[in-house]
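lol forgot to send this yesterday, sorry. struct tokens for the thing we talked abt
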């Protein structure tokens, strides 16, 4: 019985090795590719500028809310019950406006997400198409991103096609 399982194990290993040799694998470094694409850098710069502008707007609104709250605390004892209620509502409204601005600009479906999708998605599609063409030309069956694979310890530089992808994209 032991002999049969050893033979079976050896056959499976031989088949697995033969199968692995039939597959051609290549690697890319997506972060390296993106860093070397001027259009990606420009898109990132645009996103950073928009993000900073929107953050300044949010910071200004937060500052207004803080000033309202501080003034209210200082003047609270001099205000009538009606005036206090109005001021409290004003503060709550301003704080809600701040939250709404944050959602509008930086939320899950916010302006930053939409702008990133509009600017970055076409670049990613272009990279994907270049990888697909290169894989087809070189008969590569599997292309992995080594920058996204923390379990990759070593790979031969011969398997890295990042520069070829950049060349196909007309960069570098």
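and heres what i got for the seq, position by position
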């Amino acid at each position: 019985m032991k002999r049969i399982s050893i033979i079976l194990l050896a056959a499976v290993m031989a088949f697995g090795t033969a199968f692995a040799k039939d597959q051609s694998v290549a690697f890319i470094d997506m972060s390296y590719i993106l860093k070397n694409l001027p259009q990606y850098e420009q898109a990132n710069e645009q996103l950073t500028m928009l993000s900073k502008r929107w953050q300044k707007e949010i910071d200004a609104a937060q500052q207004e809310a803080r000033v309202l709250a501080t003034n209210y605390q200082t003047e609270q004892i001099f205000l009538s019950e009606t005036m206090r209620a109005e001021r409290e509502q004003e503060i709550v409204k301003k704080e809600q406006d701040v939250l709404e601005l944050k959602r509008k600009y930086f939320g899950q479906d916010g302006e930053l997400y939409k702008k990133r999708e509009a600017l970055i998605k076409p670049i990613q599609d272009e990279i994907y198409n270049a990888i697909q063409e290169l894989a087809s030309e070189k008969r590569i069956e599997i292309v992995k991103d080594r920058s996204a694979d923390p379990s990759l310890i070593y790979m031969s530089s011969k398997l890295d096609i990042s520069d070829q992808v950049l060349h196909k994209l007309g960069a570098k």
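The chain has one domain: 2-66+93-168. anyway ping me if u want another try
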